[in-house]
């Protein structure tokens, strides 16, 4: 079964993501993490979807082209607990 894509919705979602990442870029220029200097649920909640966008689509540049978002992503995605989550998913198949 072939999935149908709504190009207009994809483009709208990409624009929405760009707008959010621009806000994050500004926020992260002043703070280490989204809610301040400590890793919180605000950061944690971004791991699954951001991981997918960066690693499974051609839109990873939306993160890597933003200095502060890129730094933040590298830090949160390299946390040992997140790496453990990713490796446990591979072992459950």
From TrEMBL:
InterPro entries, sorted: Glutathione-S-Trfase_C-like, Glutathione-S-Trfase_C_sf, GST_C
Query: Which reaction is the catalytic activity of this chain?
Result: RX + glutathione = an S-substituted glutathione + a halide anion + H(+)
| A Pfam family hit | GST_C
Q: What class of enzyme is it?
A: transferase
GO molecular function terms noted in the UniProt entry: glutathione binding; glutathione transferase activity
Q: Does the keyword Kinase apply?
A: no
Q: Indicate whether Transferase appears among the record's keywords.
A: yes
Q: Which UniProt keywords apply?
A: Transferase
May I have one GO cellular component term? Answer: cytoplasm
The family note in this entry says: Belongs to the GST superfamily. Phi family.
Task: Name it.
Answer: glutathione transferase
Q: What taxonomic lineage is listed for the species of origin? A: Eukaryota, Viridiplantae, Streptophyta, Embryophyta, Tracheophyta
Gene from which the chain derives: GSTF11
């Amino acid at each position: 079964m072939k999935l149908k894509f709504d190009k207009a919705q994809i483009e709208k979602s990409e624009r929405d993501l760009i707008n959010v990442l621009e806000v994050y870029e500004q926020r992260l220029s002043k703070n280490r993490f989204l809610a301040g200097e400590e890793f919180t649920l605000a950061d944690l909640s971004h791991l699954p979807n951001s991981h997918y966008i960066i690693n499974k689509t051609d839109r990873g540049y939306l993160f890597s082209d933003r200095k502060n978002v890129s730094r933040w992503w590298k830090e949160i995605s390299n946390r040992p607990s997140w790496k453990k989550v990713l490796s446990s998913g591979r072992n459950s198949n």
